[in-house]
């Protein structure tokens, strides 16, 4: 009786199907970077047992030997793999699917992403595995949102743009360092704070307008 005509024809047909499938899969895997599992020419034992059982649709082909589905590997096909590998600390959840840490995105966590983006010309890059905005020389802050005034802003002034201070009332100058007096100081007096004069002797008064009397 032929190969498929006897009582064992069902078993033989299943054996042939598995072998052909294994050969096909092995040829496909040979052209990829995925785990190859069992090499060509393996022997399938229909009575084989694998303990613990093969996982993730793996097939037990010999005692304690599993043929793994694409994307899985390990003695019992218990490990999942992503190809290309997950980058920047990503974890492979299932074949081709990575779970990315904060600051990274894309199918394989290969894209660096900064929350809310980078402002004022900053660029998002990975620094020691952490997404960070790299700012141009005139800006700083986590998002490059803070301008830098090299001269500093004194007397409560705020740096609003590179090199430009916003001064509170009563102060002037590039660094908010010049006091403003609504009425000028007289007789050589100097405005040292808003509406306050420092007088030269023998003058005194709010504007140095009075001469000190001698007794």
UniProtKB/TrEMBL annotation:
| The keyword Disulfide bond appears for this protein | yes
Keywords, A to Z, come to: Disulfide bond, EGF-like domain, Repeat, Signal
**Where does the EGF-like domain start and stop, copy by copy?**
46-78, 110-145, 177-209
A biological process term (GO) from this entry: nodal signaling pathway
Q: Which GO terms describe its cellular component?
A: cell surface; extracellular region
- For whether the record's keyword set contains Disulfide bond, the answer is yes
Where does this protein have coiled-coil stretches?
A: none
Q: Enumerate the GO terms in the molecular function aspect.
A: activin receptor binding; nodal binding
Q: Which Pfam families match?
A: hEGF (PF12661)
Q: Which cysteines are joined by disulfide bonds?
A: 50-60, 68-77, 114-124, 135-144, 181-191, 199-208
Per the record, the domain of life is Eukaryota
User: Which segment of the chain is annotated as a signal peptide?
Assistant: 1-30
Q: What is this protein called?
A: Schwann cell-specific EGF-like repeat autocrine factor
User: Which organism is this protein's natural source?
Assistant: Hippocampus comes
Q: What is the lineage of its organism?
A: Eukaryota, Metazoa, Chordata, Craniata, Vertebrata
């Amino acid at each position: 009786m032929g190969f498929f005509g006897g009582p064992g024809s069902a078993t033989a047909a299943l054996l042939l199907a598995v072998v052909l499938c294994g050969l096909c899969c092995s040829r496909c895997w040979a052209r990829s970077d995925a785990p190859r599992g069992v090499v060509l020419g393996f022997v399938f034992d229909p009575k084989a047992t694998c303990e613990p059982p093969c996982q993730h649709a793996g097939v037990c082909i010999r005692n304690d030997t599993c043929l793994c589905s694409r994307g899985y590997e390990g003695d019992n096909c218990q490990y999942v793999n992503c190809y290309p590998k997950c980058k920047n600390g990503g974890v492979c959840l299932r074949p081709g699917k990575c779970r990315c840490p904060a600051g990274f995105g894309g199918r394989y966590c290969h894209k660096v992403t900064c929350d809310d983006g980078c402002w004022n010309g900053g660029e998002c890059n990975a620094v020691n595995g952490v997404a960070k905005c790299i700012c141009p020389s005139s800006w700083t802050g986590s998002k490059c949102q803070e301008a830098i005034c090299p001269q500093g802003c004194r007397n409560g002034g705020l740096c609003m743009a590179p090199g430009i201070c916003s001064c509170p009332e009563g102060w002037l100058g590039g660094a908010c360092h010049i006091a403003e007096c609504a009425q000028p100081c007289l007789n050589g007096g100097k405005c040292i704070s808003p509406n306050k004069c420092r007088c030269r002797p023998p003058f005194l008064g709010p504007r140095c307008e009075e001469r000190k009397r001698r007794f």
